[in-house]
Amino acid sequence: MNRYIKKTVSIIFMMLLFVSASNAQKAVIQFQEKIHDFGQIKEEDGKVSYQFKFTNTGTGPLVISRVQASCGCTTPNWTKEPIEPGKSGSIMVTYNPLGRPGIFNKTITVFSNATEEQVQLQIKGEVIPKTDENSDYPISVSGIRLKTKIVQMNNVNKGTIQSRSISFKNTTSQNVRITFENLPSYVTSEVIPDITQPNEEGKITFYLNSKNCQQWGPISDDFYLIVNGQKKFSEDNKLTLYANIVEDFSKLSVSERQNAPILDIPSTTLSLGTFKAGSKVSGKFLIKNIGKDELKIHRIVNNNKELTVSSVQTIKGGSKGELKVTVNTANLASGNYKKTITLQTNDPNNSFVILVVNWTIS
Description:
Immunoglobulin-like, 27 strands, five-stranded antiparallel β-sheet, mainly beta, 2 helices
């Protein structure tokens, strides 16, 4: 009996050590500050920026997968490379006050593999408006003045239709009819009124039907505003639509959650070793579905020109698959490299997963 008890205690002790070791290698993101007040800024002075600085105070590499601003007027730019323990990084946030007079308060959500997976930053201030008569419509396109050239749809649940509107004014001396060229197939537009008289205001509404959008995750598309059929394709009349196509897990029933796929990747880091420049080296991530329903890999986000990625698209419950990564080291300088890949899946608890690939060029 004593031998059995000792053996049981030893097993429990080893399990606790394993759990402690697993938990130890965790990144911790620590910001110097999370709120910045620009105070009063003049609209005519243009964009303003602020750099939020942070440090990885944990014991594992920190990877920021994405940074989502609450509106298209705010643009984040962040450190893309994995950040080792003790090292620092930054998120540069730029606010565009053009056409946005008054008090503003915007949030920026940081998604990472840290213990606190989502961190919210905030910028605020007050825009002092221009005094000219066109301040309400600061952007000019062929005599049409617009509030903005950005159509920001933000998060769009797959299967739904989302709309956004832009106000405009006809500042020409003739009647105007607005149409669009190169509008994405999943977007339709409505212009009211159809014919706008001189000095008349109107509204353009865009409808994004996510059922017709084949891509998941972040998307952006450029299209062109055409006045009275006079086709022109330049930066002056280019508009841009932004959206993030996501799966809505909030409506899952208890039964659906119990049967949902469960993504299990034994190791989210792939170390390819040391090799010479000019060679091609490959490795694989093992991907398991330990749930019941089929696991779907909606999208693989790979922004690394050195990496080629191929993967199974679906994995049945209780099965496994592979994601293959090939590194093309042509023209790479000697040194250590770390790159990240993001998977978007239909696992309610792991809809976005970050994979790390590292290697050394001798």
